[in-house]
Amino acid sequence: MYGERLRIFIAVDVEDPLLVSRIERIKEAIIATGVPMKPVETQNLHLTLRFIGEVPRATVEEVVRLLQEIKFQPFKIVFKGLGAFPSPTRPRVVWIGVDAGGEELARIREQIDEGLRRIGLPPERQKFHPHLTLARIKGSRNIHSLIKLIQEMSDIEVWEMTVSSVRLKKSTLTRHGPIYETLAEVRAA
């Protein structure tokens, strides 16, 4: 459809069943604090390498082409530590951090940013901080329980996974939450 715009991002999906079950247990502990929030749906767990936003379909096709140029070997990442943006004492987004493997993710991100610059898309303002979003906080009721949980789990070892592909995802926003669809995938060499 002419003039159609798609909301897109580039990510590593989290699909390992054991890792997902460990993440779900942590998410349940976050929900149990009673803080108003929107948890990330299990099928939507991912590590964002680059949010691009709404772009015309022609730009999506250019992003698919540049994604095919990304080169990397399979590597392991270790998920460790509960944290929050903007800070653990003022949580708005609760996440699990990346310990080992963060440098490799940053190298892939640099390749993505270089390709996006070539097609005229501006760089992101924030420094890249690899993380897996678990929930978006919607209010302050029981916030002290959440802050305490973040402090208690700041060093929790979650699990590891092998990164063997990077995907271009389309995000369709609905009343019930986003629906993600894979548009393209590049696999490790």
Question: What characteristics describe this protein?
Answer:
9 strands; 189 residues; single chain; Cyclic Phosphodiesterase, Chain: A; alpha+beta; five-stranded antiparallel beta sheet; 4 helices; four-stranded antiparallel beta sheet
Short description:
The chain contains four helices and nine strands.
Give me the side-by-side strand order of the main sheet: 2-6-5-4-7
CATH topology: Cyclic Phosphodiesterase, Chain: A
Number of strands: 9
- Taking all Cα atoms into account, the compactness measure Rg is 17 Å
- So, the CATH homologous superfamily? Cyclic phosphodiesterase
Residue windows where pLDDT falls under 50 for at least 5 positions: none
CATH architecture: Alpha-Beta Complex
The tally of helices reads 4
On the 0 to 100 scale, the average pLDDT is 95
Multimeric organization: single chain
Structural class: alpha+beta
The rough form would be described as globular
End-to-end Cα distance: 34 Å
Assigned CATH class: Alpha Beta
- Give the H and E element order: EHEEHEEHEHEEE
Describe the protein:
The model has no long low-confidence stretch (mean pLDDT 95). The chain is 28% helix and 40% strand. It is α+β, with helices and mostly antiparallel strands. The protein has a five-stranded antiparallel β-sheet, covered by helices on one side. A four-stranded antiparallel β-sheet has the order 3-1-8-9, with helices on one face. The chain has helices at 17-31, 57-67, 102-118, 143-152; strands at residues 5-13, 37-39, 46-56, 75-87, 90-98, 131-137, 157-163, 165-172, 179-187. The N and C termini lie far apart (34 Å). It has one domain (5-187): Alpha-Beta Complex (Cyclic Phosphodiesterase, Chain: A), CATH 3.90.1140. A hairpin with a 6-residue loop joins β8 and β9.
